[in-house]
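$ ./design --mode recover --in tokens.txt
reading tokens...
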């Protein structure tokens, strides 16, 4: 058998095995979530609606669930980095940060796994996958960028710096650059190694002319629009500060 074909088949079969394991764990987590919801006072009908299942199926799953055993299994999954929010009071489990150094290290392990998946995809397919700059709490709003080799390298370097600081810190409160941002959108961009969108860099990338006053005004509007879509600001282009428009609306002439 050709070596290239054999390697491709091995990767595909490994992907099937990994997907089967993830499905098994996801089914365990669903049973745990259903049982936990029942113990917290949710009705079978409410749980069924949230889970997209029939009431009879939910009743069967809840009746068969051993909540203590499922709690233990969920603890093992969390220790291996299984990404699932457990605290309903957390706005965004993906970016909650965790309250201790061990929890933060678990987060970084999951990011390394994600980078490995992206690199595997790049090795297998001629095109990169996409990653959103917005956190899950912003759903359905998304702003996707490519997870190409430069981005994966930048994320791995960010992880290396964070893990180095985590190794030296005694508490999460001691962290400096590795500390979780207060704004979950800013933290999401930090974790995917995405710098703030600078105006000049934006114009160069989009090849937007800005030599004349009208062109510069439109360029600022386009820049503010993309910043809004990326989640860097809550203001649309017509609300955001545009220095050209502000100067044009003031009495007197304004020239570049």
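writing sequence...
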């Amino acid at each position: 058998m050709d070596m290239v074909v054999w390697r491709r088949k091995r990767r595909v079969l490994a992907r099937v095995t990994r997907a089967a394991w993830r499905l098994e764990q996801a089914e365990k987590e669903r049973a745990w979530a259903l049982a936990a919801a029942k113990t917290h006072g949710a009705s079978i009908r409410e749980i069924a609606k949230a889970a997209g299942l029939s009431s009879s199926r939910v009743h069967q799953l809840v009746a068969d669930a051993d909540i203590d055993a499922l709690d233990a299994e969920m603890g093992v999954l969390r220790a291996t980095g299984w990404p699932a929010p457990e605290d309903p009071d957390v706005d965004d489990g993906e970016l909650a940060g965790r309250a201790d150094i061990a929890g933060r290290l678990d987060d970084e392990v999951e990011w390394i796994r994600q980078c490995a998946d992206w690199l595997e995809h790049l090795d297998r397919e001629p095109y990169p996958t996409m990653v959103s700059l917005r956190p899950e709490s912003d759903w359905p709003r998304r702003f996707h960028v490519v997870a190409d080799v430069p981005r994966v390298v930048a994320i791995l370097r960010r992880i290396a710096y964070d893990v180095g600081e985590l190794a030296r810190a005694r508490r999460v409160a001691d962290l400096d650059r590795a500390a979780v941002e207060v704004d979950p959108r800013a933290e999401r961009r930090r974790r995917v190694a995405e710098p703030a969108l600078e105006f000049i860099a934006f114009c160069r990338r989009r090849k937007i002319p800005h030599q004349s006053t009208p062109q510069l005004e439109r360029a600022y509007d386009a820049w503010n629009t993309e910043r809004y879509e990326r989640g860097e600001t809550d203001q649309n282009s017509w609300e955001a500060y545009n220095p050209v428009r502000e100067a044009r609306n003031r009495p007197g002439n304004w020239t570049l």
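exit 0
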